[in-house]
Amino acid sequence: MSEGADSEIVDLLVIGAGPTGMACAIEAQRAGFTTMLVDKGCLCNSLFHYPAHMTFFTTPELLEIGDMPFSSPNQKPNRSEALEYYRKVAEFYRLDVRQYENVERVDGGDGNFTVHTMDRFGRAVQHPARKLVIATGYYDLPNYLGIPGEDLSKVKHYYHEPHPYYGLEVLVIGGKNSAAIAALDLWRHGAKVTLVHRGKEIQKSVKYWILPDINNRIKNHEIEAYFDSVVTNITEDDVTLATRRGKVTIANQFVFALTGYHPDFEFIERLGVKLDKSNDRCPVCNPATLESNVPGIYAAGVIVAGERTSEIFIENGRFHGKLIAEDLRRKGVAT
């Protein structure tokens, strides 16, 4: 083997070390196969980049993987608790997680893949594997607006915490959970918040304890809102909106474009996996096993739903690992 390459082939290499990817590795290990996870960020990278004080909509037991209990004093756990839980799961199962390695390409085929990665210092690494799982999620790729000024440093596509924006003019773009939560958090910590949404109102699907809060803040003009409106231009000092009342330009110092995210379809296609263009770009795979049209490559987690990113979460994606492990067992992958 060349320098920077693993000498032993693993039965299953999982691309993506989030909860779904971890569940896939755990189930494969429990079935007797050797595994490795590779992620371009840290363990549960997407969860790490959620807002610092985010609370999950679901209950702890629905976030559990590997039959390990998630104990929490709260009915709905927060981000910090979830990260601690998944660290403990990784430790318990002794998962081989290669963090901060970006997958550049994959060579070979079923039974003899080579995954080429690049570490954060630009060094090339090779990992041989018999089977692959793509569990890359979607949170790393925001849906861009495609408007002038979107590349300015003041425009953010992720929201973390409110303190840096105290006393400043902040625009939040979006009408779903992430936009509503960010707008409320910013307002409560002293930012001057304006919200812009192309829909007629905040979406009804927003968490039931958030929806009346954001609507009341808008009704009381504590948060200014422009509905049926879109942002058309961003400059260093202002933003321009196309509204029902015509063009409006308002002072602005930061923009949070929280307009959603999408899977890395280009990466998936580079692996040879076909996307069903007539079915929201869902990867072509066997629903019973999740093996794709490329023998030996499986899909897991939110990417299975293609552009319908609101269909699969940790709560249901965590079961994909069992389907894949059962297929590996049926095929008798050598260890």
UniProtKB/TrEMBL annotation:
GO MF term list: thioredoxin-disulfide reductase (NADPH) activity
Source organism, top-level taxon: Bacteria
Pfam families membership: Pyr_redox_3
UniProt cross-references to InterPro entries, sorted A to Z: Bdr, FAD/NAD-bd_sf, Ferredoxin-NADP_redctase_2
Record-listed E.C. numbers: 1.8.1.9
EC main group: oxidoreductase
Keywords: Flavoprotein, Oxidoreductase
Protein name: Thioredoxin reductase (NADPH)
Organism: Tunturiibacter lichenicola
